[in-house]
Design a protein that fits this description.
Layout lengths: L8 H11 L25 E5 L2 H14 L8 H5 L6 H7 L4 H18 L2 E5 H6 L1 H11 L14 E3 L5 E4 L13 E2 H10 L2 H6 L11 E2 L1
Length: 211
């Protein structure tokens, strides 16, 4: 399992183990899950991505909680050096959006070459069955249950329950709201080609403006 911090990798990993006849490996396989994929024979890698704006907001709140950033606002955080030292080192990223760009580009390239499936967190929230169908259509496995078995709590490291899943916030059809300053900073740094490749809105379609 790969994905940036705060993209739901633990949650999706638990869902796949619950619903598919697979062995979910620990983080020691395939390299650090927030970094580049290290190909391992016989191992399928699932990459979880999230809308770059909602990811940024979640990442900022997480870094505040972990006391790794001194940024007073989300706008400051966008244009500050990456606060997570290992994430900054592995991707050589200047700022959080640069980390999103570099990680996403690397994982999408890996998906073209090997046993890598990229899934959007919003799609897992919106239609788990369809995501499971994508997996079984591509890789030789089967479902454990006739109907998808969802998990209604967020999953932390080691499958620890850490609170309810915020389904409304991550509905695929929910527009992303952002203020003008953050909008400009995000759009000025995002790789719009990657955003569109993942099926997320880009440019002026990224979300409504709020004051």
């Amino acid at each position: 399992m790969h994905g940036l911090l705060r993209t739901g990798t633990n949650y999706v990993s638990a869902l796949l183990g619950q619903n598919l006849d697979v062995v979910v490996l620990g983080p020691e396989k395939g390299g650090w899950k927030h970094g580049p994929i290290v190909t391992t024979a016989g191992v399928t890698v699932v990459v979880v991505v999230k809308n770059p704006y909602t990811w940024l907001d979640s990442f900022y709140r997480w870094e505040l909680y972990r006391q790794r950033t001194q940024a007073q606002t989300l706008a400051q955080f966008v244009s500050s050096p990456v606060s997570h030292p290992e994430l900054a080192r592995v991707w050589g990223a200047r700022d959080p959006i640069d980390a999103w760009n570099k990680a996403t580009a690397s994982w999408l390239a890996a998906a073209l070459e090997g046993d890598v499936l990229v899934v959007r967190y919003e799609d897992v929230i919106g239609d788990l069955g369809r995501v499971l169908d994508r997996f079984t259509a591509r890789f030789p496995t089967r479902r454990r249950h006739r109907r998808p078995v969802d998990i209604d709590y967020r999953v932390g490291p080691g499958s620890r329950k850490v609170g309810p899943v915020d389904r409304d916030r991550y509905r695929p059809d929910r527009p992303v709201e952002m203020d003008e300053e953050v909008r400009g900073l995000v759009l000025g740094r995002l790789d719009s080609g990657l955003v569109r490749a993942l099926g997320y809105p880009a440019g002026d379609d990224l979300g409504p403006r709020v004051s």
